[in-house]
Structure formats: structure tokens, C-alpha cells
């Protein structure tokens, strides 16, 4: 691994991981009085995800550990919220299975490439767009009002489609790197 372990952006990624359990607990309680706190925690989680990569690049603190912990923090936060929402019956189980399978395969593929080629892959824009659509779907699904049912349906299929497309892009990239057709610099 190159670069320092503790940078501002890595600390923000760790913060996202640490904020995941309180968000899950508030979701599980379904207490209307705590919905403001839940919204605030989710907002903080989203903000740290938006800024950590930007901060790392601006301060020249891009590290291999940051390239790993940032998407891992996303996967932990999104996976936890998605599982809670499926347990509560707010989102379909097939969607969560698809999302978690995609994330696990991409993560394992990234580790394999690191071990075989010594490359730590960076996220692609399509992956970031897919996660943004997923976050929007999960955010709307947290709301328990009938007014957002149509939007929830649109976001469900939009995020599922984006996840499938991004997985295809990552799978192609994996095959090109393993086959020696693509050289990426870590």
C-alpha cells in the first residue's frame, strides 16, 4: 500500500462506516420523532461520500487504502440500509440480492487484480452514477408516505438498470486487465 494510512479523506470513509449502525438502529425503530435525526445522519453520510475523494485529490492524499476503504464504506452503508429496508418490507428482496451480489463480485475482483497485477482499481463514473441512483432509491424508500410510491418505482428500476450496466462495465474491465489487454496505473 502506498501513502499514509490516516488522511482526511480516509477518516471521512471511516466516519461513514461508524455512522452506519446508528442509521440502521433509527430505521429499525421507525419512530417518527427520530426521523429528523435519521435524515441528518443520512445527510452527513452522503456529504462525506461526496467530499472524501475530492479532498484526497485536492490535498494530494490519494492512497491505495483510500481506494479500497471508500468503496467499502459505501458498500457497508448501502448494504446495511438495504437489508433493514427489505426486512421491513419497504424494498424487494431481489433488488438487495442483486445489489449485494454485484458489490461483492466487484470487491472480490478488485482484490484479485490487486494480488495478481499489483493494481488498485479506481471507481468509474458509471459506478458512481449507479450508487447515486441506488442512494436516491433507498432515501425515498425510507419515507413511509404514499406520495412517493411512483418515484420509488421509477428509482427502483433506474437503479437496478444502472447497477446492471455498471457491473457489465466492471466485468469487461476485469477481463481486459486479467487478459493483459488493458494496463491501468494504480
Describe the structure.
The structure is a single chain. The chain is mainly alpha-helical and 186 residues long. The protein has a single domain (8-178), classed as CDP-alcohol phosphotransferase transmembrane (TM) domain (Four Helix Bundle (Hemerythrin (Met), subunit A), Up-down Bundle). Helices cover 77% and strands 0% of the residues. The protein has helices at 8-29, 35-58, 64-87, 93-117, 125-142, 149-178. The longest helix has 30 residues, at 149-178.
Itemize the secondary structure elements and their pairings.
Layout lengths: L7 H22 L5 H24 L5 H24 L5 H25 L7 H18 L6 H30 L8
Helix pairs in contact: 1-2, 1-3, 2-3, 3-4, 3-5, 4-6, 5-6
**Domain module count:** 1
Helix percentage: over 70%
CATH superfamily: CDP-alcohol phosphotransferase transmembrane (TM) domain
CATH architectural arrangement: Up-down Bundle
Rounded mean pLDDT score: 82
Strand content: under 5%
Order of helices and strands: HHHHHH
Q: What is the end-to-end distance? A: 10 Å
Look at the helices and sheets and give the structural class: mainly alpha
How is the biggest beta sheet arranged? Answer: none
Got a strand count?
0
CATH domain class: Mainly Alpha
Amino acid at each position: 500500500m502506498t501513502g499514509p494510512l490516516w488522511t482526511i479523506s480516509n477518516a471521512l470513509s471511516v466516519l461513514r462506516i461508524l455512522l452506519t449502525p446508528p442509521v440502521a438502529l433509527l430505521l429499525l425503530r421507525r419512530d417518527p420523532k427520530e426521523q429528523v435525526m435519521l435524515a441528518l445522519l443520512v445527510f452527513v453520510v452522503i456529504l462525506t461520500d461526496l467530499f472524501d475523494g475530492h479532498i484526497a485529490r485536492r490535498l494530494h492524499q490519494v492512497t491505495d487504502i483510500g481506494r479500497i476503504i471508500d468503496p467499502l464504506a459505501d458498500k457497508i452503508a448501502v448494504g446495511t440500509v438495504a437489508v433493514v429496508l427489505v426486512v421491513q418490507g419497504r424494498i424487494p428482496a431481489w433488488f438487495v440480492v442483486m445489489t449485494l451480489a454485484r458489490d461483492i463480485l466487484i470487491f472480490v475482483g478488485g482484490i484479485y487484480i490487486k494480488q495478481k497485477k499489483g493494481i488498485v482499481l479506481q471507481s468509474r463514473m458509471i459506478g458512481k452514477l449507479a450508487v447515486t441512483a441506488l442512494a436516491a432509491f433507498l432515501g425515498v424508500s425510507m419515507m413511509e408516505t404514499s406520495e412517493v410510491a411512483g418515484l420509488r418505482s421509477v428509482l427502483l428500476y433506474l437503479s437496478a438498470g444502472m447497477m446492471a450496466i455498471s457491473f457489465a462495465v466492471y466485468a469487461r474491465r476485469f477481463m481486459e486487465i486479467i487478459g493483459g489487454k488493458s494496463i491501468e496505473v494504480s
